[in-house]
């Protein structure tokens, strides 16, 4: 028994030495990981000054496959398109909410990441996804390369995406009256909203066809369409509706939106609309 124990001890020592030797063989003397930080460009510094430092919003414009859907044909924005797109975001969205909601409003409630994509995000049903809001923390904006700051339709479509997604973030912070909303046009919602003409949808009490997907998209579309329209443009939309019930339901939804901003954030929604329009004019003029 003693001999066996001795052999076992020798074996254990030999094994231990073997493991020790293996542990030190072929080990790199320096780390193979790259911890170096890239030198910031003037664009990076501008983004830090306008978004990261004051609002804690990180902007990703260089390609990162972990931030996009790799099953779609997507590509990063052209570098010279990044700043103009962000100037639209800053002037019309951030500055408008800051002026009407207060200096700390966007600092407290905002997506913490913007991901910019150069091209279109096409869907199999023939529609385009203009933007995505993920968990209230990240907003992805598509078609950056196609934005023309001198074109009102281009700017309106682009900022509509941000306004729409931000309304979702506000709703996650403080929900709107879902029961009151759901009672207005319950039979008009459909997953096939994309085959509906916008004129027909408005006759049924929806500001856009996409608003017919569900009550949450309906609320966001109602708010964002008003925010991206002048008072006269929105009045023209209402005037174009011939069905009195449809028109009345859109106006009832408008009233819920206005009251929501007042009750949830003590904000004058119409003042926000006017400020956004003023800032839109400024963007297009420059």
Write the layout of secondary structure elements.
Elements: H1 2-24, H2 42-55, E1 58-60, H3 79-101, H4 105-108, E2 113-116, E3 131-134, E4 138-141, H5 152-173, H6 178-182, H7 198-203, H8 215-227, H9 231-239, H10 244-265, H11 269-285
Parallel strand pairs: 1-2, 2-4
Antiparallel strand pairs: 3-4
Number of helices: 11
Strand order of the largest sheet: 1-2-4-3
Fraction in helix: 55-70%
Q: Output the radius of gyration.
A: 27 Å
Report the β-strand fraction as a percent range. Answer: 5-15%
Query: How many extended strands?
Result: 4
Shape field: globular
Task: Give the termini separation.
Answer: 94 Å
Low-confidence stretches: 1-25
Main pleated sheet: 4 strands, mixed
List its salient traits:
55% helix; disordered N terminus; 4 strands; four-stranded mixed β-sheet; mainly alpha
Describe the structure.
This protein has 286 residues and is mainly alpha-helical. 55% of the residues lie in helices and 5% in strands. It contains 11 helices and 4 strands; from the N terminus they run ααβααβββααααααα. The protein has a 4-stranded mixed beta sheet with strand order 1-2-4-3, covered by helices on one side. Helix 2 runs parallel beside helix 3 and helix 8 packs across helix 10. The longest helix has 23 residues. The N terminus is likely disordered.
